[in-house]
Amino acid sequence: MKTAGIPDRVVPMKVIVCGVQRTGTLSMRYALYQLGIHDCYHMHDVFENPSTDGPLWSRALKSKYAGGDPLLKEDWDLLLGNYQAVCDVPPAFFGPELAEIYPDAKVVILNRDPEKWYVSVLNSIHSKRTILDQLAVLFCLAFNPDTRAWMSFGLTMFKYGWPFDHRTEKEKAITWYKDIYKEFRERIPAERRIEFSVGEGWKPLCDFLELPVPKTRDCETGKLVEAPFPHLNDRFAFHTDNAQTQAAWMKAAVQNAWAFVGKATVLGGASFGGYLLWKSRLGGRF
């Protein structure tokens, strides 16, 4: 619901990137930044704000896939009002809805070969976790509220957004991928969108957005030349970023454990975290 005194939007929504996870969304985010669109909502924003953003995205997922109350423009403005663009999931789940709510925004359908997409997801988001990784999750669940908020959102996202096991149900995963892109194309008018992949470079994107191609100064000649298109978040970078997030959550969990419950109950809290993990049947998916 709209909060009194808060404007509809702080900044205009300029670009909606309809591209799911592991299609080059982080590269796209940085590309938009170089084009002057400095605030692009991405899954990284949920990582940074799980307690505030997670419940709103969970509500949106239930609204679309489970017949919950529909979100109004005021609701989306509350979540995205400070952002000029969106990309990656969870926004990509709602690409057509966001395109309808923000009719002046341009839409980029961010493509990747389905088979390559599947392998990339398998080796990053859905890669197997070690026993130590899972024990760390248990501890953070018990003592870090941000971890619990993230896990609650994640369970909702898996239930409604990804209703399949990516590791064992390849056919269902690829069918889901093709279906969501089919929805993009069926519900968003062709004149509002461009088909794009990060390998195409600046020209088609800049032509569509009516923005100049970014320039950089060549260190040898001193001349201005076309800037390289960003290519970020490869498999190694993904795991590095994930490790940094887990380390931050662990640090907060340790501080909370010692500050609020003391040495005697740390083990009991970890056991409770184990119970939560078992009860949720995560199966190492996070």
UniProtKB/TrEMBL annotation:
Pfam family, one: Sulfotransfer_4
Gene3D superfamilies, per database record: P-loop containing nucleotide triphosphate hydrolases (3.40.50.300)
UniProt protein name: NAD dependent epimerase/dehydratase
Organism: Bionectria ochroleuca (Gliocladium roseum)
